[in-house]
Write a structure and sequence with these properties.
360 residues; Nucleotidyltransferase, domain 5; 2 domains; 5-stranded mixed β-sheet; 11 helices; globular
């Protein structure tokens, strides 16, 4: 295990953000986690405006944008951090899961930079980046319960260490962020759908429409999620109400968001029982991923944590959405514990890569 500070350059190109960042991990016995994290730079270029006219991400356009901007963002990240490439202890880039074209661009660039500066290369699982972010932003020790909610992922995991993840439950259909995007499109709102639904819901009456809560009360469903039936119910209500008013949209958005909150909190209660830390008051629930930026959902999940004697920890909004700081941090964590650079320069790009298959 490294006893000296570790500085890592990270790249993220798995979907519709092009990002580069530099983080430093410093061993620190005064921390419960044993490490302290510092973000020296974190540069993110969002592609929202590029994809908004299409109501979703267009993979080919996303890949071309990564090619156009990634080199400049790397230079910007180094300049902001006041570092030189040859000073990096490692280079890390997302190797999956994600849109394969974008993943290939970041992965290839990262490998080239590692060769150029003679540093080890880490192909990072994007989900591991989210899973470990709370250790970068907060003093979080293992183990902890993770709720990962984003545009492409929805799962509950037990995190026992770097590379040690146990899947407790996942979605059987849509991810939460995907459900928000589809709901927004059904209601004629913009992209991305999560912020649009949250804004309308703040002005709506969630009790006006009775929307289903899929899998709640089904003992055989464990910690799994399902949102496709909820989305279909929303569509039926919207069709029945045509022509639909702004008040109707706000009330439907509020009802939809409340249903999502009930589903997430119910599954978390089940997962907390399965998690069973040795001392309940030391339990910690981490919420990560873009959907974690939703304040209504965060408040609901905080209530579940308090009820169970757990502490809720959520990274800052800028580190909930896709970013390169989390990728650099995952690389730093692996280097710190003495993990070999996995497949190194032979690391493949993966469209699918379950977190539970990411063992050291």
């Amino acid at each position: 295990m490294s006893a000296t500070p570790i500085t890592v350059l990270g790249l993220e190109t798995s979907c519709d953000e092009t990002a580069a960042a530099i983080v430093r991990l410093t061993p620190d016995d005064a921390q419960a986690s044993g490490v302290r994290g510092d973000i020296l730079s974190n540069v993110v270029l969002s592609q929202i405006e590029l994809h908004a006219p299409y109501g979703g991400v267009v993979p080919e356009l996303a890949a071309r944008a990564h090619i156009d901007h990634l080199d400049r963002l790397v230079a910007d990240a180094l300049a902001e951090a006041g570092c030189k490439l040859e000073e990096m202890d490692a280079i890390a880039a997302t190797a999956g899961p994600g849109l394969i074209g974008g993943v290939l661009i970041g992965l290839t660039t990262g490998k080239a930079l590692a060769l150029a500066c003679g540093a080890p290369f880490y192909g990072i699982n994007h989900l591991e980046g989210h899973a470990l972010t709370a250790r970068l932003t907060h003093d979080v020790a293992f183990p902890y319960l993770l709720l990962l909610v984003s545009g492409g992922h929805c799962q509950l995991c037990r995190v026992d260490g770097v590379g040690d993840y146990a899947l407790l439950g996942t979605t059987r259909d849509d991810a939460v962020g995907e459900a928000f995007d589809k709901a927004a499109k059904l209601l004629g709102l913009g992209y991305p759908g999560g912020p649009e639904i949250e804004a309308r819901a703040a002005r709506g009456d969630s009790s006006r429409f009775a929307l289903p809560r899929p899998l709640i009360g089904h003992d055989d469903s464990g910690c799994d999620f399902s949102f496709s039936g909820l989305k279909t119910a929303l569509r039926q209500r919207a069709i029945e109400m045509q022509p639909i008013s702004e008040t109707d949209i706000c009330d439907l958005a509020a009802g939809f968001q409340a249903a999502i909150a009930d589903c997430l909190t119910d599954r978390c209660r089940v997962a907390i029982k399965e998690f069973s830390p040795s001392a309940k008051d030391t339990g910690r629930l981490i919420v990560a991923g873009g959907v974690a930026a939703n304040q209504f959902l965060r408040h609901a999940l905080d209530g579940v944590a308090v009820e169970a004697g757990f502490t809720l920890t959520v990274p800052p909004p800028a580190l909930c959405t896709d970013n390169a700081a989390m990728i650099a941090w995952a690389g730093a964590e692996r280097l710190h514990i003495g993990s070999a650079a996995d497949a190194g320069l032979a690391a493949p790009a993966r469209a699918r890569w379950p977190l539970s298959e990411n063992a050291l």
